[in-house]
Request: fold
Amino acid sequence: MLSNLIRSEQHFELIESAIGWLESGGRIALITLVNIEGNAPYPVGTQMLVREDGVFRGQITGGCAEQAIADQAVHQIKAGQNSVQRYGLGSPYFDIQLPCGSGIDVFIDVGQSLRDLQCIQQGLEQRKIVPFEIKSERLSFIKKYYPTPRLFLLGQGPILVSCAKLALETGLDVLCVAQNEATLKLLKRASLVGVGLNEYRDFSEVYDKHTGVVSLFHEHDLEIAILSQALASEAFYIGALGSKKTHAARLDSLRTEHINEVNLARIHGPVGVDIMAKTPPQIAISIVSQVIDSYNKSID
Reply:
């Protein structure tokens, strides 16, 4: 079933690129944001990748200093030396200013081995959190690589399609199981892949602690077995579409399956952040926002 997973464009991009560039005989620098003084658009641990010809991928400052960082990284690659560089407040590069007068420190690592990167990639493919120590004379920093979170969508209608599109835009992988042929056609029209509900009943291979599930069924008797299975898993998020009355009936049905109250409380129902959403895209925004909020809290 996971062969039908739709991959976000952000899926392991830097690690895959680094491996590819090294395998082709190139030299690289992996740059990690290790300290922020003030505010910054990206959190500590964010990375960029630079090739010896100056081509780079990733963002650390939102466009303010990427070219300067890449230029310095090329210099460090040629010198064969790692380096910690300051940009913005307190930096020797007076012509590079960061928003709100902030300062950042980045570690430019030119010694990443192909074997280490392949180990990181393997761990991520196995859905593991991979800690990686970044060390120099001036710092010791643990960078954690997280598997790409995924959103498992089941049900029918345009809300499912809007959720899938928005989730992909925000960096989540997506798996869609459509209740009917009409929803499969909607997915295809949106250039998305979906599978029919009648093809599967056991979804246990899908669930892990980096997976969220949203039930978007209109016939709610179809979701009870699916929600029971989700509640038995480590899924970081479980949500279900419907009114408060519908959700109360849903919980009663799940109680007959001997689901305890602690587990029942894991279900977000009615699903989504209350933004007075009126249309399928607005409802999708409310749902995906709640999913992202839950995931970010789960990995803090």
